[in-house]
Amino acid sequence: GQSYEIRMLDNRKIGELPEINGKLVKSIFRVVFHDRRLQYTEHQQLEGWRWNRPGDRILDIDIPMSVGIIDPRANPTQLNTVEFLWDPSKRTSVFIQVHCISTEFTMRKHGGEKGIDTFKENENGEYTEHLHSASCQIKVFKPKGADRKQKTDREKMEKRTPHEKEKYQPSYETTILTEVR
Fold first, then answer.
1. Is residue 31 part of a domain?
2. In percent, how much of the chain has pLDDT > 70?
3. pLDDT at 94
4. Do 60 and 82 contact (CB within 8 A), yes or no?
5. What SS3 state is found at 157?
6. Which residues constitute the domain of residue 43?
7. How far apart are CA 155 and CA 135, in angstroms?
8. Distance CA 11, CA 15 (A)
9. I need a labelling partner for 158 at 20 to 30 A (CA). Which of 57, 67, 85, 102 fits?
10. What gap in Å lies between CA 159 and CA 141, rounded to an integer?
11. Strand, coil or helix: what is 175?
12. Is residue 150 part of a domain?
């Protein structure tokens, strides 16, 4: 239920995709499974979650905190998906909330993956032409669980040699989603 800001930025190079200048684009956020085995049973996993938590959603937009989003939508049948329109030339921040913890779906306690797909409008006014995809892995914990996890991760890292530490990404205040090609 914690709100996390995702800043939407127009990262086009000069002259790239001039057809979207002055137009809105549509972005769709999804929480999907990082674990390959769970990807094959995603529909059943989500149905099981829906059955155990009637009326709840996995992913929502915190509309009062968000800036620059237009027509936010959460399809009642897609609990792990939200979408909205936005103007790439204006400051846009969407605050999302994940309402499940990572361990609800897997015995091995691996997190999910959060992804964003962005589309432009076609000649029929439908947002179906793919522009960009990006993602990052997320791990969601209950508040005390997150503190405990961070502490044990720090302790494990301190025990590693400098050479072993080079294999890991450093910690940052913000996460830049990786472009998906």
1. yes
2. 79
3. 94
4. yes
5. helix
6. 3-142+172-179
7. 28
8. 12
9. 102
10. 24
11. coil
12. no
Domain count, the chain: 1
Question: Which amino acid, one-letter code, is at 69?
Answer: I
154 occurs within a structural domain:
no
- Asked whether 111 and 137 are in contact (CB, 8 A), the reply is yes
Q: Is pTM beyond 0.90 here?
A: no
Helix ranges (DSSP H) in 66-161? 143-159
Q: Is residue 112 part of a domain?
A: yes
Report the amino acid identity of residue 115.
G
Which amino acid is it at 160?
R
Q: Using 50, 70 and 90 to split pLDDT, how confident is the model at 74?
A: very high
Alpha-carbon dihedral angle through residues 129, 133, 138, 142, given to the nearest 10 degrees: -30
Please give the full DSSP string across 14-78, using - where no structure is assigned.
TTSSGGGTT--EEEEEEEEESSHHHHHTHHHHHHHHHHHSTT--SEEE-TTT-BSEEEEE--TT-
CB atoms within 10 A of CB 112: 26
Q: What is the mean pLDDT of the chain?
A: 81
Helix (H) or strand (E) holding 5: strand 3-8
What's the pLDDT at 101?
A: 73
Tell me what the mean pLDDT of segment 143-165 comes to. 78
* pLDDT score at 60: 94
Question: How many angstroms separate the CA atoms of 72 and 67, rounded?
Answer: 11
